[in-house]
Amino acid sequence: xxxxxxxxxxxxxxxxxxxxxxxxxxxxxxxxxxxxxxxxxxxxxxxxxxxxxxxxxxxxxxxxxxxxxxxxxxxxxxxxxxxxxxxxxxxxxxxxxxxxxxxxxxxxxxxxxxxxxxxxxxxxxxxxxxxxxxxxxxxxxxxxxxxxxxxxxxxxxxxxxxxxxxxxxxxxxxxxxxxxxxxxxxxxxxxxxxxxxxxxxxxxxxxxxxxxxxxxxxxxxxxxxxxxxxxxxxxxxxxxxxxxxxxxxxxxxxxxxxxxxxxxxxxxxxxxxxxxxxxxxxxxxxxxxxxxxxxxx
Length: 297
Known about the structure:
Helix content is 36%, strand content 24%. It is built from 10 helices and 15 strands. It starts with a strand and ends with a helix. The model has no long low-confidence stretch (mean pLDDT 95).
């Protein structure tokens, strides 16, 4: 199947073609014995592609026992409401602070629409998930998929409801957005409103670094070696990014003017990962830092 890549025995990466682009958004499929799990779902628009990948791998719908969501942002978990209807035995593992927004996604949808503006149609929608299909996580917990252990690790910062998932047997860490975006060999900051928090993000990077993972598995996008270096460098990227935005904000007469100056700054514009087409997302990540700074950070 196009876009489906085997990473090792029992683990695949599916390129969902997020926002109509290759190698931007992924869903991981984990299989152990007669049980399987999804790590992320992508947007609701990706749900048919995810189901097609399961079919291509010969994974029965009833065999998918877990859907692990790193967080509830629509590019990571927007398709979960569609998929739980098609995967009758799957339980959704999500941070306890995100669970209520899966049951009633109305506030989530409104927040995303405000954050992304005209790009909102690219994010699809979110359908409700029955409460009884959700297993909320508050503290670190271990789950099983067949013989595979999966540790859920709270990693706030990008969002307060963020989790990373770690496979102790292989040393693989599913990073969600806690370790940034890794596109074409470059790290990009992801600092959206309304809840980005620099200190918690750096603490989370330090926490997962202590696991000494052997490989990072980015939702955006794909596997990466040298995890220690990448986790350390992303912390440095975040510190620089917030410092840069703060310096411009402090020297500008208004936040509106600060935004204009930042978008015109070549150092900042270099983090528009799809060039000029992605200035809206760049502006969203700047707004996230401005909101964070406005909380007195």
